[in-house]
Amino acid sequence: MALPPDDREAWALMGRAAMMLGGAEGESIAQQAWERVLALEPEDRDAWSDWLQLYRSRRDRARMRRMLAAHATSAEVRTRIARLLIEDERYDTANAVLQGVLRDDSAHAAALALRGQSAYESGDTTAGHAFYGRALLHADRDDGAVLWSQAVGIATPWEVQTWDAGLPASLRPGFLRSFWARRDPDLFRRTNARIAEHFARLRQARKMFPLLHPLAAFQRDNATRAPEIRASVAEEFFYEQCEAEEWQGAPIRAEDRARIPFPETRLWPTFSAEQRREMLPGQPWVDQESEGRVLVTPFLRGLQVVDTTAARVGYGRRTGIDDRGLTYLRFGPPRHRAIGAPNTVQTFCRVPDVERWDYDAIGPVRFFRPSSVDIGFLAGVRQTGDMVFRPQNEEQYIAMVASLTRERTSVPAPLPFGAWHAQFRAATDSEQVDLVVFATEERVAAQLSGALSAPTAPALSSRDRVVLTAPPGAYVLQVHAQAGDTLGRLARQLELRSFAPGPALSDLLLAPAWTDTAVERSAMLARTPQELAVPADVQLRAYAEVYGLPRDADGTVRYQAVYQFYRTDDVTRDAQRDSLPGGLVLSFQRHVLATGSTVVEWLDFTPDVPPGRCLLRLTVTNVGGTRIIGRTQIALEIQNQ
């Protein structure tokens, strides 16, 4: 049925129907429909978003640019033209278009983001950092979500879920800045090298691993994916014939297997001539004299049992790259990439549609093009023509899950080190928290990244500790250490708790005792060892702060402090216990004249115990012990002199 050329609603309805139809026919109809809608209304965001989900060749991009050029007075249209030019790697032309947009509006977020991408992809990281940094600051103006489309390929399922839930525009700058801060590979540098690395990988993934059939059933949604998500009988047969292997002397340890030369000790499963004819009539086979056994061990776990968010994200349609491209984008080039089946003896196995990538970080990843082995076993079930994750053993399954949920920089960080931290109410603002981070290396940098708030500025120190100040809430704490040119990285999630208005108790610090009894936090921090290991028979000073206790008329604060010192062979287990029976218990009734809202609680003691791991717990209650104000604890190791 021919549609009126100027009936935008009719063409849009056809486009939506074609997207639901899917397949090659749906894609062809959708391509025509969305191009017509955009010709009539070039700033239509829904039509543009759906057109971007379709496969587009260089010719398709050129045709769309010519059509949009007639409406290039619009900044929105010019940014779309520039995006297509970047995909064609025509960076100078794209830059000229984007500079025109930025002359009119220097805070145009989409133009800044694309200008940064153009610079990164062409190798100009200095300009890339400048433009992309400005784009992140103005992300609240990025109505077309260009910044998110650039980053979504390496997002975690939680990050995708957060964005898709309808993140308000005001929260986007903080969300995206923390998104990249959590991935910063080197806090000692002024710029985040992970962003430049990401765009370099994106350029290669876009070129080498485009998604060819984005409207195929496998790529669309859970309902259409379900029949195709499990490997077909033909795929299982291919794996058993062409990839499954048996090792002489098996079973053997993995480290021994790694030393066995390839391929002399591999025995490929063989069938008799009669069996081959029955299973695959008309297929040419090469006779084999070697003996082997058929390893019928189908591996039935696939995407359907991966984290449900990761399974339904649809990274391919969002990024325009297949599962190989997604893995490349997240982890970079593999240490080893094998194309084709290892068994090259049998003709049936000689296809380039299976790949195995090996990574030190996540292990082996297997990709397969299911449509390449449609040999009559499928009974009409559709199969995708793109390369997709197809794990056939436990190792490959684990690597697939990592490829959908994790990512990694290529900046090495082999330095081993340890870190611990303590929380206090901020000295300058009772609504904030001071997080003191100690590390076992002298050069240390740390940063806090919230879920929706902008990250703290990286704090650097050459004295094995840093102090970060932030509001209460959930964060990712990154701690980096440096020794010479060698870098080390640690990261963990933590909750900064509120100390206001109180009453509340800070964390504990420990240090060798000294004679001065006018105890202050700065003095404790200067003496607290970077490693919580102290010689036996050395007197220690424990330090904590109590906040917001009620004062008597004369300014006196009253509370009870109970210290428990406990030997342990499992710190994690005992730290979670409500009571520590059998340990040393010291209890004090405190009457302290307070001049402010903070009271310093400290104690000098000598651990009279044999060397080993210990746990020191402080519980502060009201004077009668009926109400707990706070509880904190710290682990330490007593060493021989």
How would you characterize this protein structure?
The protein is α+β, with helices and mostly antiparallel strands and 641 residues long. The chain has 4 domains: 55-208, Serine Threonine Protein Phosphatase 5, Tetratricopeptide repeat (Alpha Horseshoe), CATH 1.25.40; 218-405, no CATH class; 412-499, Immunoglobulin-like, CATH 2.60.40; 501-641, Immunoglobulin-like (Sandwich). The protein is built from 23 helices and 22 strands. The strands form 6 sheets. It has a 5-stranded mixed sheet. A 4-stranded antiparallel sheet has the order 3-4-5-6. A 4-stranded antiparallel sheet has the order 10-9-12-13, with helices on one face. Strand 9 and strand 10 form a beta hairpin. Helix 5 packs antiparallel against helix 6 (91-104) and helix 7 (109-121) packs antiparallel against helix 8. Residues 246-253, 256-273 and 275-298 have low confidence and may be disordered.
